Structures are given as C-alpha cells and as structure tokens.
Amino acid sequence: MADKRIPSDLFNMVKKKTGKSVSESDIKNLANGVTPATAQSEQQLRQLIKQVSSLVNVPVSEQTTKEIIDAVKGSKNLGSLEGLMKMLTKKK
Q1: Using an 8 Å Cβ cutoff, are 56 and 14 in contact?
Q2: Regarding predicted confidence, which is higher, 89 or 44?
Q3: Among candidates 48, 54, 53, which has minimal Cα distance to 69?
Q4: Which of 25, 45, 67 has the alpha carbon at shortest distance from 10?
Q5: pLDDT at residue 1 is higher than 50
Q6: Domain for residue 4, yes or no?
Q7: What confidence score (pLDDT) does residue 26 get?
Q8: b/e code 27-63 from CB counts within 10 Å (16+ = b)
Q9: Number of domains in the chain
C-alpha cells in the first residue's frame, strides 16, 4: 500500500480483537506484500486473510472470508494500511 507507516495503536487493536500479540516485524512483513492491487484481487485477498489468520492463530470461516473480501472490494478507503485496518476492525 502507498503508506507503509503502521498506526501506533495497531498492535493493541490486534491483541484486543484476537487475544494474541503480534510483533511489529510480523505486521511489517505482511504490509510489505500488500499493494493497491491486492484489494482488487480475490485470490490475493484470500491469501492475505490466510496469512493474518495464521499469524494470530485464529481460524477464519469461508463465510467470514467472503464477507471480508466483499467489504474490501466495495471500500474506497484502502489507499493505506491504516485505511484497511480501520475497515477491518469495524467488522465483527
């Protein structure tokens, strides 16, 4: 994504949502592989969801995966990692 800065509260947000701690290097490694094209490719989104799921050791159902993909593809505010995280954290 265009803005590779990681929001300072991202780690706390991940821990709060998943109960798992994630290191800054893990987030940076994921973020480095995300481009604006990722948000438009269902295959790339599925891969990203699997990577995040593995990172925090939380399974993601097929239905939830589809809902995330639909939400990401329908969103216009995904020009940055922060925009993506804000959109995903609104998802319950």
Answers
A1: yes
A2: 44
A3: 48
A4: 25
A5: no
A6: no
A7: 84
A8: beeebeebeeebbeeeebbbebbeebeebbeeebeee
A9: 1
- Domain-located, residue 47: yes
Sign of CA dihedral 46, 27, 21, 54: positive
Residue 2 lies in a domain: no
CA gap 2, 17 in Å, rounded:
25
pLDDT per residue over 15-68, tens digit each?
777 777 777 788 788 888 888 888 889 999 999 889 988 888 888 999 999 988
Query: How many Å apart are CA 79 and CA 43, to the nearest integer?
Result: 19
Alpha carbon separation from 55 to 19, 22, 30, 76, 77 (Å, rounded): 12, 8, 10, 26, 24
Q: Do 85 and 10 touch, CB atoms closer than 8 A?
A: yes
Count of CB atoms situated within 10 Å of the CB of 77: 10
- Which domain covers residue 71, as residue numbers? 10-90
Residues recorded for the chain: 92
